[in-house]
Amino acid sequence: MRSEAANRSALISTASYDVSLDVRQAADPDVAGYTSRSVITFTASEPGGSTFLDFIGAGVHSVFLNGRSLPVGDVVDGSRIRLDNLLAENQVTVTGTALYSRSGEGMHRFVDPADGKTYLYTQYEPADARRVFANFEQPDLKATYTFHVMAPAQWEVASNGAEVKRTLLTSDPATACWDFATTLPMSTYITAILAGPYFKAVDRWESTLDDGTHLDVPLALYCRASMAESFDTEHLFGLTKKGLDFFNRLFDFPYPWGKYDQAFVPEYNLGAMENPGLVTFTESYVFTSRATDAQYQGRANTLMHEMAHMWFGDLVTMQWWDDLWLKESFADYMGTLGVDRATDWDTAWVNFANKRKAWAYVQDQLPTTHPIVADIPDLEAAKQNFDGITYAKGASVLKQLVAYVGFDAFIAGSRAYFRKHAYGNTSLGDLLEALGKASGRDLAGWARHWLQTSGISTLSLDIIPGATDDDGGPAEVAIVQEATDPVTGREELRPHRLRVGSYDFDESGALVRTGSIETDVAGARTELPQLAGRQRPALLLVNDDDLTYAKVRLDPVSEATVRASLDRIDDPMARALCWTALWNSARDGETPAALYVDAVAAFARAETGIGVLLNILDNAVTAVERYTAVASRTAVRASFLATAAAELDRARPGSDQQLAWARTIGTLSRHDATLLPRLRGLLEGKDAVEGLAVDPQLRWHFWHALAAHGQASAAELDAELKQDTTASGRAGHATAMASRPDPEVKAAAWNAALEGNELSNQLLSATITGFATARTELLEPYVEPYFESLRKTWNTRSIEIASRIVRGLYPAAQDLPEGTRPEEHPVLRRTDDWLAANPDAPHALRRIIVEQRSHLLRALCAQAAVVSSATPTAPAH
Fold first, then answer.
1. Contact yes or no for 662/623 (Cβ under 8 A)
2. Candidates 267, 274, 283, 306; catalytic one
3. 647 is catalytic
4. pLDDT digits (tens, 9 = 90+) for 220-271
5. In angstroms, rounded to a whole number, what is the distance separating the alpha carbons of residues 310 and 82?
6. What span, in angstroms and rounded, lies between the C-alpha atoms of 280 and 274?
7. Which whole-number Å values give the CA distances from 424 to 134, 248, 267, in the listed order?
8. pTM tops 0.85, yes or no
C-alpha cells in the first residue's frame, strides 16, 4: 500500500544489500526452489521503532537482526517479515527458499523444447523482487547491491554489476560462484539476474564527450543457444552504439552504470525492462522467421526506449507509482526520438502517430481511463497502470510540450533535472520546476490540463460558407474542441499547439500540401481568419504533422477527398493521420466499418510505409470481424479476402508488403474457408507464391486457420511440431490444437487454462487464443462458467496469470441481433449483473471486466452504424 510505503520510507533509509542465490539445481524439474540470502544494512530515524521486510517464497529459514536471531514463527506473516526494536544503524540477514516461476514474475525458469536446456532470468516490475530475495520493496528506498550467484559452472551468469570473480567450488567442480561488482544506488525493481547456457556476444563502445569525459562501456548480448543462428548481433551492437552516442550527448550526463548488457529471454511478459547494466527483452525480437522492416524498427524503438530509461527511471526514479509516467512517458517519447535522430529510419514519428498513439486513443476512451499522473494506492493498481495512458498518451503529451516550450528548453530542463536528482527519487513538481526554469514558462496550468485530467479532446473544423457562390471561399473557418473528462464529467478544454494543413491536387494528380497554419487552440472555438475568404482546398487537415494529442474529425469535403483519393496524399505523415481519422470514425460508429474496409481494399496497395500498412490491415480485420453488422459480414469478409489474395499475387516478390498480405489472408481464413485449399498447398509445397518464404511463423499462422475449420488433425499438428521444436513452435501448436471446432477440444482448453497449473505464461496465452477462435455457439456454454470463476481465479493465481485468464476468456466475440439495441445484449447484461453483485471485488479485477465490457459495447454499437444519406462529393481534380 502507498500509505505503508510512505510510513516505511519516513522511518528507514536503506544503504546496501548483499544477496546470495543458489540456483545450481535449477535444471532439476523436481526442485521447486532455491536458497536466497539477503544481508541488508539500513538506518532508522526512530530507534526502537518497527518496520517490515517483503519476501514471497516457500519459506523463511532464519532471520537475524543486529546479530540477534528472531523466532521465524513470530515475525513472519505471509509475505512480510516484522522487524522490531530497531537501532539507529541496523543489519538484518534473512535466509529462505524462493520459488522458480512459470508466470514470468520473479525468477522465471524455462526449459528449451529444442534442446532441453534450462534458462533463468528475473523480472520484477512493479514489486516481484520480493519473490527472489527479502527486501524493502518500494522504489524510493534505493540502495547499492552486491550479488553472488552459485550456478552450474558451464553457464553464463550476469547481473547489474560487472563480474569481478568466478570461483569453482572445490567440493563440487561442476559448480561455480559468481561475484558481481557493487552497483550504484538503485531501486529493488530494476535489479536483475540472468543464468543459463545462454549464447553470449561481446563488444564495447568508446566515446569522448564534449566536456572531455572518456567513456569505455563493455557491451554484451545474450540469447538462448538454440536461437544463436538467428541472432543478428552486429546489427544490435550497431544500434546500441548509436543510441549511446545520441543519449550521452543529448542528456549531457555520462552513462553511469558501467557495462551495458542486453538479454533476449523466453516467455517474457513485457517488451523489455530497463534493468541498469542488464536490460532484458522479449526473445520475439530475435527474428527466427521473416520479419518486416517495421518489426526491425519496432525493435530499435524498444532498444532506444530502454536505453533512455538509464537516465529517466534508473538514474532518477519516481517516488511512488503515481508518477510512473515520469519514466515511461519520457522513455516512450525518447525511444521514438532516438530512432528518428540516431538511425537511418525516417518514419519513426509516422509509426508513432499511426500505431503508438492509436493505443492511447483506445485506452483513453475506456471507462477506466485515468490521468497521466494517476492515483495508485496499491501494487495491484500499479500493475494495471502499465497501459496506453502511461506510455503512449504520456509520450504524446510530451511531444505537445516540446512544441509548446521548444526542444532546446525541454532538453535543458531535462539535463538540470538529472544533475539535481541523480540517484534520487522525484515527483511531478520536481520535473515541472526544472522545465519551467529552462523554458521561462509557468507549466502549472499546462500540467493541470494535460497531466491531471482524463479523456481525449476531439477537434473538428466548422466551415461557414461564403455569402455568394463565386467568392471561392468560406466566410468563417474555426477549430471546434469538444472534451469531457470521463472521470469527473466536467468539460476539460485543453490548450493545443498545432498546425492545419491545406492540401490540393497538383498537375500530376498528387494531393500535396499547399499551405500550413500554426496556431494555439484554447477553449471551445478557435477562429482561423487566415482561411476565411480563400478558395477552400480539397483537404484541410487539423493537427498536420501530429503535434498534439487529440482525435480529429474530417470535415465533410475533406472526408470525401480522403475516401476518394487517400492514395494520392504524398506526405507519409499526412496519409497516416488520415488513416487514423477514418479508423476513429469507424470505431466510434460515426461511419460503418465496411467503409473503412473499402478504403483499405482500395488504397492499401499504395501505402509505402510498411508500419502503416501492417496497422491498417490489422484494423481492417478487426473492422470485419468485430465492427461490421452480422448481416453483411460474410460478404464484406469475402470481398476483402479476395482483395488480399489479389494483392498477395501482385506484391513484389520477397517484399514486406507480400508478407503482410499473406499474414492477413491467414487471419481472415480463420473465419472463411475459401482460401484454405491454397493455404494447404503452400504448406505442402504444392503451391507457391514467388518470393514468399513459408517459414515456421507463417506455417503456424496457416495451420491455425486450417485447424479453426477442422481441416487440420491432431496428428498433422503434432508432425508440424516435430519439425519446429522451438518455443514459438510449441506456442503455435498449442494455439492450433485449441482452435479445432470440437466441443471436447474446447472443454480441454478451458480446463487447462482455468483449472490446471501446468501451462506457462506463454502457453496459457496461446491456449486461450486458440480457445477463443471459434463460432459463437461453441463458446456459448462457457459464458456463465466464466463469470462464476472470476473471484476464484483472481484469488488463486498471480496477478499476471489471473489478468491473462480474465481478459482472454471474456466472451468478447458477440454479434448484435438485428432489431436489438447494443445495451440489451445478454453478455453485456450478464457483465453488469456481475459488477453489481461484486462491488467488493479487487479493483484490478473489476477494471479488467469494465474494460472488456466497454470493448464489447463499442463493437456492438459499431455494428449498428448506418451510412449517412448526406455524404458529400469530393472536389474534382
1. no
2. 306
3. no
4. 999 999 999 999 999 999 999 999 999 999 999 999 999 999 999 999 999 9
5. 33
6. 7
7. 22, 19, 32
8. yes
